[in-house]
Amino acid sequence: MKASTIAELKKELQLLPQKQLVAHCIRMAQFKVMNKELLSYLLFEQNDEQQFVDNVMEEMDAMFKEINSSNSFFLLKKSIRKILRHTHKHIKFSQIKTTEIQLLMHFCQSLKNLNIGFEENKVLLNMYNAQVKKIHKAIETLHPDERLDYNAVLDL
């Protein structure tokens, strides 16, 4: 079965009655956890973005605390990649640049605070540098006043 385009789906969804639209949304949420998480964000957390950011940061902190720094670098990298995937998933849900910047900055700061000497490991250093590049790219899309604020925080 070939998937329809977004334009075709949008056109058809606009024609459906509200009851049927709700039923389709519930059915989609049953199939994938990510669909359910996105629907939860859209319904409950989208209105208070700062609370959403704070919750995600708390989850990230808990995940960083679970990392055993005495493990091999392989397990460390695997755990850090898992945290980064979790962070990017929430960034996709929000689609707001300031949220992306805040979460990626928190990730980078938490990685620095982990005290594992990630600068010596090429993979972890590249992962860190890639996130810093994403932060800079996201900052460039902001209003000049906001840009100055984030650049000041980034220089610390």
Q: What's the short story on this structure?
A:
The protein has 156 residues and is mainly alpha-helical.
Describe the protein in words:
The structure is a single chain. By secondary structure, the protein is an all-alpha fold. It has a domain at 48-155. It has helices spanning 6-15, 18-31, 33-45, 49-66, 73-94, 97-113, 122-140, 144-155. Helix 2 (18-31) crosses helix 3, helix 4 (49-66) runs antiparallel to helix 5 and helix 6 runs antiparallel to helix 7 (122-140). The protein is globular and about 55 Å long. The termini are far apart. The mean pLDDT is 89.
Q: Extract low-pLDDT stretches.
A: none
Distance between the termini: 52 Å
Rg result: 19 Å
Average of pLDDT: 89
Largest sheet: none
Number of E-state strands: 0
What's the helix count? 8
Q: Can you write the helix and strand succession as a string?
A: HHHHHHHH
Roughly how much helix do the residues carry, as a percent range? Answer: over 70%
Shape label: globular
How much beta, percentage-wise?
under 5%
Label the structural class: mainly alpha
What labels would you give this structure?
single chain; 156 residues; mainly alpha; 8 helices; 0% strand; globular
